[in-house]
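Might I ask for a little of your time on a matter of protein folding? What I wish to show you is a protein chain and, alongside it, a tokenised description of its three-dimensional fold. I should value your view on which stretches of the chain appear to form regular backbone elements. You will find the record immediately after this paragraph:
***
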Amino acid sequence: MSAEEKAEGGRRTREHIRYLPGLFPPLVSIIMATFNAAKVLERGIHSVLEQTYKNIEFIIVDGGSTDATLDIIRKYDDRIDYWISEKDEGVYDAFNKGIDIANGDWLFFLGADDSLANDSVLQRFFSKPIDSELLYGNVLWGEGGEIVAGEFFPEKFYSQNICQQAIFYNKNLFERIGKFDLKYRLVADWVLNMKAFGLKTIKPVYFDTVVAVYSLGGMSTNVWDEEFLKNRERLYRKSFGIFAYLNFKVSSAIEKALIHSPKLRAVISFFTVRK
């Protein structure tokens, strides 16, 4: 298939499948973005298909691969709900297409070289009703690598993002904050997460468990998004407000002063001990 052609398949193209969102346990749509990923794709596919949680809709959005990616996808055609392959504008464009296609109450996004950590991940998150629009956990950064973990709060988002592979979004959330902004080609998920956490009613829930194995070759691992850097302060203020922004800046200034001033550390330590 050439990069200009369009192809599609999966169970939805042949069968009448009745998806039932809004019930318990909830329907979870897993959206995988692929492009020329034949060498790494099958592990991620297996990690989805082997989940003990069964109320899953599995969608693959391919960017017009010219290697053996589509051969592998077709190999699992009877177990994938829907797949489409056509030229796109990158991984976030693929995810946005997936949002429009998905029927699930909850959406989860995977890269082609990422995988769910084990077969019980979804069961742990969705075995009980949860009053939230966003659930998140930890990721393992590369096979045998470090666990990227921790609960998030507004100040943290100025310099750090939750790994995209650690988050489950309620689909209704996208109606409130929009989809991935393609202007940010490397960290559109960071912008989306700031918008989400800035909502007063979202009530994010953190699970101290590994959700996925995140490939060391992820597109934003070693490269900064210049557009994001240019707009970060404005985005942060818009999401969390001026007081959160000023609090972060003051805290950062104090932290830097302590790092570079042994005398100041000694003074603070003296008064802390005397207190």
Remarks:
- The beta strands are 7-9, 28-34, 56-62, 82-85, 106-111, 115-116, 134-141, 147-148, 167-170, 205-214.
